[in-house]
Design a protein that fits this description.
Blueprint: H1 3-14, H2 16-25, H3 36-41, H4 46-56, H5 61-64
Helix pairs in contact: 1-2
């Protein structure tokens, strides 16, 4: 997943306003309590950040990848690291 795809999914799954608020305010416990913006700036893989955010926000797998075929990608296992 590229960062551009991350932001597209964030807007699609959470809505633009709420998604952007989450990105700046929600602390991700599994990523050293960084926000989404901080984690991406620190070099975390966008798909990892996406899965951590979705796990923390209880987004079911069926909703994580959007409504269309644009974002079809199987989630990486939680805690996966390259």
């Amino acid at each position: 997943m590229q960062e551009r795809e991350f932001w597209e999914l964030l807007d699609e799954v959470f809505g633009r306003s709420y998604g952007r608020s989450l990105a700046h305010d929600q602390r991700l416990a599994a990523l050293r309590s960084m926000t989404v913006v901080e984690a991406l700036a620190a070099g975390e893989e966008p798909r990892t950040v996406w899965n951590v955010l979705c796990d923390q926000m209880d987004v079911p797998d069926a909703r994580r990848w959007g409504r269309g075929d644009d974002h079809v990608a199987p989630p990486k296992p939680y805690g996966w690291r390259a």
